[in-house]
C-alpha cells in the first residue's frame, strides 16, 4: 500500500513514518519542501518527493507520483508565536497546502483516504463550561495559527461534502517528545537544563507562562492514533486526540528539574509570553476511542525523561 506523508521531515511526520514502517506492508512517499531535509534515520526507507504545497502544479505532480491509498497531511507552519509575527505566510502555507491536495485528487480522479491534521488551537477562546473540549465545541481561535487550521479543516469537510473526498479531520492537543523543536515548551526547558548540566550557560532557566494547564500526549501515542484513524475512522468525521488530563506547565517543569537534580533558578521572560493565553485546556477523545480503541499508553514522566535524555545527547554531540 502506498502512503503519502506531507511534512515527513517534521517532528510528527518522522515519527509517523517510523511507526508505519514498523507495521510493515507499506511503501512510504514523503514530501519535503527542499532536498536534504529527510531525517538520516529514514534515508533509504522512504521515497522522497520535493514539493512546495503552496504551488498547485507541484502538489499535483507529488500526488500523482505517489499514487497513495492514504495521505497524511501534516505539513505546515506549526508555531503559534510565528503565526503572530507572520500571519499571512501561516495562512498561506496551512490553508493552500490542504486545498491544493484536494484539487489534485479531483483532477486525478483519485480517492485515497486523506487525514488532515489540525490542532486544539482551533477551539481557541474557551470557558470552564466548555471543558472538556469535544468535537462539538464551537471554534473560536485566538491566534492566526488556529485560524489557519480551522480553515484547513473546513476545507476538508467542504470537499468531502461537495466532491465526496474521503477526508478525516484530526485535532491533536499538545503533543511532546524527543526530537521536537526547541521553540516548544518541553524541548525549550530540556535543552536549557542539558546545557546548564554541561556548564554551557548560567544556571538560570528562561520560561514563559507557567500557570497554564495543558493536555499533553506523547508524540508516539499521537502517531498511533493517526494510523488507527486512517484504518477505522469515518469519512467526513473529526476526532480529538487528547489524554483527557490537564497538567500545569509549572508541574511539568518541576518534573524535569527533579530528573536533573541540580539547582537551577527559574526566571520568567516576558518575551516568551503569548499575546493571549488560555489558562486551562483539556480535551475529550472518547469519539476517537469509540471508533478505533485508541488511548494513550506512555506515562508523562517517561516522555519527559526521554526528552531530557535526547537533549543531553544533543548537547554532548555539539561539544
From TrEMBL:
CDD domains for the chain? GDP_MD_SDR_e (cd05260)
Name the InterPro entries for this protein. NAD(P)-bd_dom, NAD(P)-bd_dom_sf
Regions annotated as coiled coil: none
Q: Which SUPFAM superfamilies does the entry mention?
A: NAD(P)-binding Rossmann-fold domains (SSF51735)
> What residue stretches are annotated with the NAD(P)-binding domain?
4-304
- What's the protein called, per UniProt? GDP-mannose 4,6-dehydratase
Q: Which organism is it from?
A: Candidatus Chloroploca asiatica
Amino acid at each position: 500500500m502506498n502512503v503519502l506523508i506531507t511534512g515527513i521531515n517534521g517532528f510528527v511526520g518522522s515519527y509517523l513514518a517510523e511507526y508505519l514502517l514498523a507495521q510493515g506492508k507499506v511503501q512510504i512517499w514523503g514530501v519535503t519542501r527542499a532536498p536534504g531535509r529527510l531525517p538520516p534515520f529514514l534515508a533509504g526507507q522512504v521515497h522522497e518527493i520535493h514539493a512546495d504545497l503552496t504551488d498547485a502544479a507541484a502538489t499535483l505532480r507529488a500526488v500523482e507520483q505517489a499514487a497513495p491509498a492514504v495521505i497524511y497531511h501534516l505539513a505546515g507552519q506549526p508555531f503559534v508565536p510565528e503565526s503572530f509575527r507572520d500571519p499571512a505566510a501561516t495562512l498561506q502555507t496551512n490553508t493552500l497546502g490542504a486545498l491544493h491536495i484536494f484539487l489534485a485528487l479531483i483532477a486525478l480522479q483519485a480517492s485515497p483516504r486523506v487525514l488532515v491534521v489540525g490542532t486544539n488551537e482551533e477551539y481557541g477562546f474557551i470557558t470552564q463550561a466548555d471543558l472538556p473540549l469535544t468535537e462539538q465545541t464551537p471554534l473560536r481561535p485566538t491566534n492566526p495559527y488556529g485560524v489557519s487550521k480551522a480553515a484547513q479543516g473546513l476545507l476538508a469537510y467542504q470537499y468531502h461534502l461537495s466532491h465526496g473526498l474521503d477526508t478525516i479531520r484530526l485535532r491533536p492537543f499538545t503533543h511532546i517528545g524527543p526530537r521536537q523543536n526547541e521553540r516548544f515548551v518541553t524541548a525549550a526547558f530540556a535543552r536549557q537544563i542539558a546545557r546548564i548540566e554541561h556548564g554551557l550557560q548560567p544556571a538560570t532557566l528562561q520560561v514563559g507562562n507557567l500557570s497554564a494547564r495543558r493536555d499533553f500526549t506523547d508524540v508516539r501515542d499521537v502517531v498511533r492514533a493517526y494510523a488507527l484513524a486512517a484504518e477505522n475512522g469515518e469519512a467526513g468525521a473529526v476526532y480529538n486526540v487528547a489524554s483527557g488530563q490537564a497538567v500545569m506547565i509549572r508541574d511539568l517543569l518541576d518534573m524535569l528539574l527533579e530528573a536533573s537534580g541540580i539547582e537551577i533558578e527559574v526566571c520568567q521572560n516576558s518575551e516568551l509570553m503569548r499575546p493571549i493565553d488560555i489558562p486551562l485546556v483539556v480535551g475529550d477523545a472518547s469519539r476517537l476511542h469509540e471508533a478505533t480503541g485508541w488511548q494513550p499508553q506512555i506515562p508523562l514522566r517517561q516522555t519527559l525523561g526521554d526528552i531530557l535524555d535526547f537533549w543531553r545527547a544533543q548537547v554532548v554531540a555539539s561539544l
